[in-house]
Amino acid sequence: MAIRTEPFILNMGPQHPSTHGVFRMRVTLDGEVVVDLEPVIGYLHRGIEKLGETRTYTQIIPLTDRLDYVASMTNNFAYVLAVEKLAGIEIPERAEYLRIIMAETMRISSHLMAVGFFLNDLGAMMTPVLYMWREREKLLDLYEMVCGQRLTYNYMRIGGVSQDVPEEFMPAMKKWVAEMPRFIDEYDQLLAQNEILLARTKGVCILPRDTAINIAASGPVLRASGVKWDLRKADPYSIYARFDFEVPVGTVGDNYDRYWVRMQEARQSIRILEQAIAQLPEGEVCAKVPHLLRPPVGEVYGHIEAPKGELGFYLVSDNSIAPYRFHIRPPTLINLTALKDMVIGWKVADLIITFGSIDVCLGEIDR
Amino acid sequence: MTLLEQFQLWLGGIWPGWAAYIVPGIVGIVIVLAFVVVTVIVFIWYERRLLGRFQIRLGPNRLGPEGIFQPIATALKILLKEDIVPAKGDKVIHWLAPVIVFVPVLMVFAVVPFGEGAILTDLNVGIVYVVAISSVSTVGIYMAGWASNNKYALIAALRTVAQMVSYELPVVLAILGVVLMAGSMSMTQIVASQNLPFILLQPLGFVIFFLGTVAEMNRSPFDLLEADSEIVAGYHIEYSGMKFAMFYLGEYGHALAYACIISTLFLGGWQGPLLPPVIWFLIKVVAVFSVIVWMRATLPRLRVDQLMAFAWKGLLPMAIINLFIIAAEVLWLPEIMPWIIVAMNFIFAGALIVLWSKLFTLGGGRVEV
């Protein structure tokens, strides 16, 4: 005789240690198995898009810092690129290189945190996170040198960057770049051979290639599913065409691939950094841009490959000092739509690590 | 004759019989209780400091030398917290559960030999008593999960029962190997028979017993009951104040108890050269506990189905094979040089572990819904 059972609904979040912020999942469980999942977002909504419409183009930059606060300089980068595209501003060479250096270090820092917290979700009690933070901490010191901030940098400006880097920055950065591959090797040794990690992640919660494309996933989540799509190669913005680097691609699209792709991307970012530091020219760091910028009437969509995926800014100008419409395409919100497809039929524990492997940042999901 | 019995005899010469019988018992109980509570507090500090070292940070280092008073501050903080009972919870069971978790842990220490004769009561079925009494905690955890009227706690409670029942079997089978070789179930006898520690004579048994007990005391990588990244805190999610402190003490007391049992069964108990027996025993207990902390700092958690598979497909068959090997050795080769048995068993253990790692893989686990 079969025992009659019925599924029950579990509210995970918004207060939950593994929701990476204030995300809420209404999970229908059959014992431990996930039967249905409904994401509930909006707990961190600050109305950034609406706020942007009442601010000048320069004043919006600090708002973008509050999107993906783990990698806030890439948000600055995407936004200023969009405005420059709208207003047709040329920026100095040195500024381009500084932006690339910042964006790639941000990518490494974001991936380190993603992998660290992914392992924390796996149950490895803070140790991987703190090892990842060891390196990120050094990066934060570097950023502090550059712009005096450790979390919300507000470093990039329309037409360049706010100020040149101090003298002691480049030697410190070179030292960091020289040390970093050793640490990534160390992490690989510690993690990639771990039997429990492999058992928990290999073949678990697969995102098939077709589904990944259909939901418009981007970033490491898409590339782990075997799609070679990286905006730095597919639509080279800024000066990425000058650098030589690979786009690591996963094979299956399971949790292990998403972890692996991030580690490989960190290595590639170091390659870009080495080239950028070697080629860094002298000169101005900001073009002459009027304080109250009035771009011509029109609309623009500027996008970059942020650490978490395609980050896009859509701006409509009516030739006033503030954008008429300011819209953000946050990568993790769109990647998050894959969550339900991935976790149905897996256990609660898999749900948690899959959510971690998407590497969401609630700051940009709820904006 | 244990120290306590000698004390009883001596007191019997001065005091009336009933007092001579009761007073030494109470004295012994108080000594053991004090030992457990003090050691648990030291262990909490030690784990936090050690974990800090593993995680490239310092750990608590402000209160007192090296932060040794931090657990006391933590205990005071916990005592001052409001005691909350869930409105729709089962109040009696919610109150009873921490007691049922904590008391069996204390009772285990009745048969732990701290030195030659330094044992509260030398039961002739000591190890069976340990196995029996430590299983009672499972009921307490299940009660806590059920009475909290919380879904996380309920998941944890159901995980507990599955996990405890599964890991009891390999643990008991590994203990049987020890009992066969020692020829007795009394803890004192088991220690006395270890001229060579059983970790050398039964390496496979030690591995099985160690992993099984780590699972029984809910330590990483088997800490599914309180998996804070999944079910937040598991069964004690709805507990606060003193009741939470009971769970906390119970958990560390469990770790201490099993560290004691492992030292007794496999590491030669109090035996050792030069130093006094009690010091040797404590060194071994701390060493075992350090390994447990090391595992906690290093390993990710298993998933619930992998946990069960590891017990039933991994440990249990190996434990049965181990038991047969030990039985055969005890039966047919009783007079052989112990070092030859050591060599043989290490080869067996290595071969079996390699074989199992090839045959048996964790993974998969999707259910069609």
Q: Can you offer a commentary on this structure?
A:
The complex is a heterodimer of chains A (about 375) and B (about 375). Chain A has about 375 residues and is α+β, with helices and mostly antiparallel strands. Chain A has a single domain, classed as Cytochrome-c3 Hydrogenase, chain B (Orthogonal Bundle). In chain A, about 50% of the residues lie in helices and about 15% in strands. Chain A contains 15 helices and eight strands. Chain A has helices spanning about 50, 60-65, 70-85, 95-120, 125-145, 170-190, 195-200, 210-215, 220-225, 230-235, 255-280, 330-335, 340-345, 350-360, 360-365; strands at about 10, 25-30, 35-40, 155, 160, 300-305, 310-315, 325-330. Chain A has a three-stranded antiparallel sheet with strand order 1-2-3. In chain A, strands 6-7-8 form a three-stranded antiparallel sheet. Chain A has a two-stranded antiparallel ribbon with strand order 4-5. The model of chain A has no long low-confidence stretch (mean pLDDT about 85). Chain B has helices spanning about 5-10, 15-55, 70-80, 90-110, 125-145, 150-180, 185-190, 200, 205-215, 240-265, 275-300, 305-330, 340-360. The relative contact order of chain B is 0.12. Chain B is mostly helical. Chain B folds into two domains: about 1-80, no CATH class; about 85-360, no CATH class. Chain B is about 70% helix and about 0% strand. In chain B, helix 4 (about 90-110) packs antiparallel against helix 5 (about 125-145) and helix 5 (about 125-145) runs antiparallel to helix 6. The mean pLDDT of chain B is about 85.
